[in-house]
Design a protein that fits this description.
The protein is an alpha/beta fold and about 425 residues long. The protein contains 19 helices and 13 strands.
């Protein structure tokens, strides 16, 4: 899912990680679960000295990792946003600063023991402020002095750089409310008063259309739209997004590695500085990846309560969408409505070229489908054949799926233009969907 499911918080001692996470857990009990710092939890439970008992601490960490990994997998499968305090990379950075060679050596065997988080959030304060706050909180057993903090932070920065992690830095030398506001925004958490409900919102919205038709702009609009307004006017509750393009891009990059190893590309070829698909079995494969990704959420009523799921993909060819719908799971079909974002092929190509960043031509966020691939894969599609009206239903394996076709030309990024355009398609679509 493109929305966050697992985020790890890091930062210098006394930055406020525990306090911030505890407040988030209390404020969003139906959506958030917090896992405390594993190392600190072990130290407190076992009565270890954080600095003197390094060997025993390493053994205890190794023993505790399987249970922590299972807890994370369970919470994620239940649809919770998992917020975890600290991580093994931080402990490794401290181990190097403290000269703890035992953990440095053990790390190579345990570095992949926990699921990879979607992002790391660093609450950032100056070193000297961390030292002052540590002295003020009165917990000398956990205090770390400035010279070692500096070495730790340098080690941690190298760890992130080596792993190419998604690191979000949030300034934390500010009032608490300002920090929490930015954390909530980064986590896409919108507080909704208890009396508010999301009974009049879509369960699953299939967001379809040619490349660069405006699907990403639609999601950006809905992300920025206030929760209550989005639910009332556009019938979308707090939502998660599943998009098959990042899966496809990963396969392209895997092909690059196979090519380097002399094994040959499996799925794609290089084309005008980008990629083109060569194995068309990838298209049904991607639908099955979507099915597997959303199954835990759709099979758990609690996870879907007050939530919407947006599933985004593009298909082309004479039977592209027909073939894709035939592969979608029953769990998706029985709960889905479809919004097709309609632009002409030439408009799709124009936007595709316009968004291409020559300085970052390998980046997934600035990808551009080559003209050859555009014409072959998306020059035509079968959407208007299977959904000839602007609003209606289509039959898939006995399911009647409501759909709306939304013209999205001329292009606009003005919310004043987009809001009525989206509302004009989603409101009548919801009326059909809610009566299914």
């Amino acid at each position: 899912m493109s929305s966050l499911q697992h985020v790890v918080f890091e930062g210098l001692p006394a930055v406020g990680k525990s306090e911030s996470l505890e407040l988030l857990a209390r404020t969003y009990p139906d959506r958030v679960r917090v896992l405390p710092e594993l190392v600190k939890e072990i130290v407190l439970r076992s009565g270890l000295d954080l600095f003197r008992d390094r060997g025993a601490l390493t053994r205890a960490i190794v023993d505790a990792l399987p249970q922590r990994a299972e807890t994370l997998r369970t919470l994620r499968s239940q649809g919770f946003l998992c917020l975890e305090e600290s991580h093994l990379g931080v402990h490794l950075a401290y181990a190097k600063a403290l000269g703890d060679q035992g953990f440095v050596e053990a790390y190579s065997g345990i570095k992949n023991a926990l699921p990879e988080p979607d992002a790391f959030f660093r609450l950032d304060i100056p070193l000297e402020l961390s030292v002052r706050r540590q002295a003020a909180r009165g917990t000398p057993a956990f205090d770390v002095f400035e010279d070692r903090l500096g070495a730790m932070l340098a080690n941690l920065d190298r760890w992130h750089a080596d792993r190419h992690t998604h690191l979000v830095t949030i300034p934390a030398d500010r009032p608490a409310h300002a920090i929490l506001r930015d954390v909530e925004a980064a986590l896409q958490l919108d507080y909704v008063p208890h009396e508010s409900t999301f009974s009049d919102t879509f369960d699953v919205l299939l967001l379809l259309g040619r490349p660069a038709s405006g699907k990403s702009e639609f999601i950006d609009f809905m992300t920025r739209c206030p929760t209550s307004e989005r639910a009332t006017l556009h019938h979308i509750a707090p939502f998660a997004v599943v998009d098959d393009f990042p899966i496809l891009w990963q396969l392209f990059e895997d092909d690059d590695l196979w090519e380097v190893l002399g094994k040959g590309r499996l799925y794609s070829k290089r084309c005008n500085g980008n990629y083109a698909v060569t194995d068309h079995a990838l298209w049904p494969f991607l639908i099955h990846k979507i099915n597997r990704s959303v199954a835990p959420m759709l099979s758990n009523p609690r996870a879907m309560q007050g939530r919407s799921l947006i599933v985004e993909f593009s298909r082309g060819g004479a039977t592209g969408y027909t073939d894709a719908f035939a592969q979608l799971s029953d769990e998706i079909l029985r709960r889905a409505a479809i919004l097709y974002v309609s632009v002409s092929f030439e408009e799709s190509w124009r936007r595709n070229v316009a968004r291409y960043d020559e300085d970052d031509k390998g980046g997934i966020l600035t990808h551009s489908v080559p003209r050859e691939e555009m014409e072959k894969s998306y020059g035509i599609d079968d959407w208007h054949d299977i959904a000839p009206d602007s609003l209606g239903t289509l039959s898939v394996r006995g399911f009647e799926i409501p759909y709306a076709t939304m013209p999205n030309e001329p292009e606009s990024k003005d919310f004043a233009v987009l809001a009525p355009r989206y509302r004009g398609a989603l409101q009548p679509l919801f009326e059909i969907w809610s009566q299914r």
